[in-house]
Amino acid sequence: MALRRLLLLLELAVYACCFICGIITAASVTISQGDFQGKCMLYAAVHLNGSDFTVSQSSAPSICYFVSAISVSVAVFCFSSVLYWVYTSCIEDDFKRERIWMNVSLVVCGVFLFFLLVTGCILKVGRDRLCDSIIKEEKNITRCDEAQNKPWAKPLIGTSFYSRLHSAETAVWVNFFSWIIIAVLVVLQRRSDPENRSREEDPGASPSETEPFFNRPGHPQ
User: Fold this and answer.
1) pTM of the model
2) Packing angle between helix 2-35 and helix 61-91, nearest 10 degrees?
3) Which end of the chain, N or C, is less surrounded by CB atoms within 10 Å?
4) Which residues contact 49 (CB under 8 A, 6 or more apart)?
5) What angle do CA 71, 73, 77 make, to 5 degrees?
6) Interval 109-148: pLDDT, tens
7) In this structure, what is the dihedral angle of CA atoms 117, 119, 122, 125, given to the nearest 10 degrees?
8) How does pLDDT run across 18-41, given as a tens digit for each residue?
9) How far apart are CA 165 and CA 158, in angstroms?
10) CA-CA distance, 32 to 162, in Å (whole number)?
11) CB–CB of 44/130 below 8 Å?
């Protein structure tokens, strides 16, 4: 019982981490999109208009919406899970996590891991495409974050675009690996569940039922 409670507490702590990461990703992408007048800068291209950077091509806003939606969904699920288990532990001294709900948790882990992997790849590749465009356009820039110190055509605000996209990507990958930890913790909880030991010898069984078949003594003639 103590082991299962400890594993559940660790799982809730990782849920809290996933909640924070989801909020960071959604906020970073949304703020970055607002700085560029609603344009999604993932996979975007820029060019120099005199000495100012301006956006020549941006990706569909739905790409940024997708990233934000996945991050918010993860955050909401994690926040709800933490609230549920905290409430349950307060009203029940000896609460038990049913096996079926552990199976559901594993399915949820698989779903979120898939979408977080897709989201992480979108942020990584999309940010790299944007940075390649910036470096090709401005020969004096060797790193993408240096473009934050360059002037951008108004009303665009490019002073933190790289930092925000980098923060969003980092938070997604932390979220991804945190869900792997959650899946491991759920599996350990399943193994520590007494019901999983039902294959062991039944104390109520008769000796003839538990006796090895091939080692039974022969019947007297």
Assistant:
1) 0.82
2) 150
3) C
4) 153
5) 120
6) 999 999 999 999 999 999 999 999 888 888 888 888 888 8
7) -50
8) 999 999 999 999 999 998 888 999
9) 12
10) 9
11) yes
